[in-house]
Amino acid sequence: MRRLLLVLLLMLGTAMVPVAPATATAANAFDHRHAAWDALLAKHVRVLDGGNASQVRYTGMQVDRALLAAYLASLSAVTEADYASWSRSLRLAFLINAYNAFTVELVLGKYPDLKSIKDLGSVFQSPWKKTFFTLLGEQRSLDDVEHGLVRAPGAFDDPRIHVALVCASVGCPMLRNEAFTGERLDAQLDDAMRRFFADRSRNRFDSANGKLQVSKIFDWYGKDFAQGHAGFDSLAATFARYAEQLADTPGARARVRSGDYRLEFLDYDWRLNDAP
Questions:
Q1: In angstroms, rounded to a whole number, what is the distance separating the alpha carbons of residues 149 and 127?
Q2: Is residue 258 part of a domain?
Q3: In a domain, 148, yes or no
Q4: Tens-digit pLDDT profile for the chain (276 aa)?
Q5: 257 within a domain of the structure (yes/no)
Q6: Is the distance from CB of 114 to CB of 272 less than 8 angstroms?
Q7: Total domains, the chain
Q8: I need a surface site. Which of 29, 37, 212, 236 has the fewest CB within 10 A?
Q9: Helix or strand or coil: residue 238?
Q10: Does some domain include residue 227?
Q11: What sign for the dihedral angle of Cα 78, 79, 80, 81?
Q12: Residue 141 is part of which domain span?
């Protein structure tokens, strides 16, 4: 009888122990430092042009593809409920890293037999519309992540994402040699904007002919920089904000700030951002 009472008391005590929700456990398990991706970037991204451009050692990424696969699996394991419980910065860092990492995986699927990510598409489907991975419980394409999640109205409303999402091309903003993280996200996005505007191969003010020559990105997504989000209310104001990076002399910077230029969008270089 005494033994039976002891068993009942133990069972009652166990039942009274609070159990954390499964979603909280899963959310805590995800590495918001993105350490695995961070290590791959540090190892295989080659920074150029004084830190304003980069190339990817896809050969090295291919050697470490199992490590990349493990990181991608950790992204795919995150549920929509987990994701919804995170802060805005954690969610945006997650999506940016996912886009960039799955882009590398897409390239590796046919590397080294391609000269451009566009080689992975066809007449009927662009490479960005290929459904080839799972994220937040659904089969996704890169376009789903960029346009359906990151650029969805009211989701983040931050035009700086256009210098963070990298499409594996020379014309793209640089792929950073570190992962984006929630706690540093704002500073990383600001830094990415400065570096992109300081890259003379993509953005520059030509004093001789009064032309402000900028990336085609600002043609494609100009509206994102004109809606007042994150302090950006027009393309002209955006260029004025980064006049220091766009122009080399005080006089030229003054012209950029005042809007005294003819705007020209540069051709986009779709060659693979591969490091020899």
A1: 18
A2: no
A3: yes
A4: 444 444 344 444 433 333 334 344 444 589 999 999 999 999 999 999 999 999 999 999 999 999 999 999 999 999 999 999 999 999 999 999 999 999 999 999 999 999 999 999 887 889 999 999 999 999 999 999 999 999 999 999 999 999 999 999 999 999 999 999 999 999 999 999 999 999 999 999 999 999 999 999 999 999 999 998 988 999 999 999 999 999 999 999 999 999 999 999 999 999 999 998
A5: no
A6: yes
A7: 1
A8: 29
A9: helix
A10: no
A11: negative
A12: 27-201
65-76 and 88-108 helices, crossing angle to 10°: 140
Query: Are residues 178 and 38 in contact, defined by beta-carbon separation less than 8 angstroms?
Result: yes
Q: Which two tokens stand for residue 2?
A: 């005494």
Helices then strands, counting H and E runs in the chain, come out as 13, 7
Contact 176, 273 (CB under 8 A): no
Tokens standing for residue 60: 């090295």
Determine the 3-state secondary structure of 200 from DSSP. coil
The model carries a pTM of 0.89
